[in-house]
Design brief:
The chain is of the alpha/beta class and 292 residues long. It has helices spanning 11-22, 40-50, 64-67, 71-91, 124-139, 159-169, 186-196, 215-226, 255-259, 268-291, and strands at residues 2-6, 26-30, 54-57, 95-101, 143-148, 151-152, 172-176, 180-181, 184-185, 203-206, 213-214, 231-235. Helix 1 links the parallel strand 1 and strand 2. Bound molecules: NADP nicotinamide-adenine-dinucleotide phosphate.
Length: 292
């Protein structure tokens, strides 16, 4: 199996490449430089030369707030770019994994969304990711659509890093508690994706760490496990207005993942613990490198 991973300079793409390398699989990770989603010709040339048998498509325009004022670019990358890549997967007989998001759902109610629940994205980014899903489903038969949420990994900015940084200068923080979802540690997701591409169990899945929490609960647990004495005060979303609307309900059901026989990801609290260790060892490596 020869795997192409898009978005290698991002959080998930980085960890997918590491996971596949650890399994001694043939893999190449690409960024927007060598594999621009807005240039179908360049992508075709790359596919012709590498001829992957599977593509894990992690790359995306992920600036959710900026997308509200930059719809054209967001759609060009997430919708048209994904459609162009799906056509290439079809032409080169490659399986495709498309990483999508909880933002395709309307975000109301309190029940976990099933994979086939009605879609109604409330922001431009969500609309573009849904258009990407629809293109993949129209163009391909051999696809996996994997919706994830609240991503954190070693190779990028994320909520955990933001909290740890704020915790260095604050004794108390206010954090939103009326948005409920599930964090996704890219290390854990990469294990699932590496398993998934080796099967023919095509379809739509939700994959996050197990359990639900609010952002405030997420923050409190980060500080607890990091041994930082920071008071977290829950506040409503209205306290932090954002350019793009965020869903209140990001709970997603794992029924299809379970029924297909895939292993569920560990609980989110467990993932935080392992991420903090990963951050610590990165810090040690950087300190050692700085000392020469
Ligand atoms: N982050 C979240 O909380 C979250 C939640 C739900 C779903 N997701 C989905 O999960 C996936 C991975 O997210 P992430 O957080 O790992 O992303 P990320 O860290 O923001 O990285 C984005 C990646 O996409 C690449 N990219 C951006 N524009 C591109 C273009 N025009 N052509 C080619 N590559 C381009 C970037 O490459 P360059 O560095 O070269 O620009 C980078 O490698 C995405 O599909 C995202 O939509 C993320």
């Amino acid at each position: 199996m020869r795997v192409l991973v898009t978005g290698v300079t991002g959080q998930l793409g980085h960890d997918c490449v590491i996971e596949l390398q650890d399994r001694d699989m043939e893999v190449r990770g690409v960024s927007s430089k060598e594999f621009p989603l807005t240039d179908a010709g360049a992508m075709r040339r790359y596919m012709e030369a590498y001829r992957p048998t599977a593509v894990i498509h992690c790359a995306a325009y992920t600036a959710v707030d900026r997308a509200e004022d930059d719809k054209e670019t967001c759609m060009a990358v997430n919708a048209e770019g994904t459609a162009a890549l799906a056509r290439l997967c079809r032409d080169f007989h490659a399986k495709m994994v498309y990483i999508s998001t909880d933002y395709v759902f309307p975000g109301n109610g309190t029940e976990p969304y099933e994979v086939d629940a009605p879609k109604d994205p409330k922001n431009v980014y969500g609309q573009s990711k849904l258009a990407g899903e629809e293109a993949v489903q129209q163009i391909l038969k051999r696809y996996f659509i994997v919706r994830i949420s609240w991503v954190f990994g070693i190779n990028g900015k994320n909520f955990v890093r933001t909290m740890l940084k704020l915790g260095q200068t604050h004794k108390a923080l206010t954090v939103v508690d009326d948005q409920i979802g599930s964090p996704t540690y890219t290390r854990d997701l990469a294990v699932l994706l590496a398993d998934m591409i080796q099967t023919e169990k095509y379809g739509v899945y939700h994959a996050t760490n197990e359990g639900f929490c609010s952002w405030a609960e997420f923050a409190a647990e980060i500080f607890r496990q990091a041994g930082m004495d920071i008071k977290v005060t829950p506040v409503p979303s209205s306290a932090y207005p954002t350019r793009a609307v965020r869903p209140h309900n990001s709970r997603m059901s794992k029924k299809s993942l379970r029924e297909a026989g895939f292993l569920l990801l560990p609980r989110w609290q467990d993932a935080i613990g392992r991420y903090l260790i990963e951050l610590e060892s990165l810090k040690e490596q950087e300190e050692m490198a700085a000392q020469g």
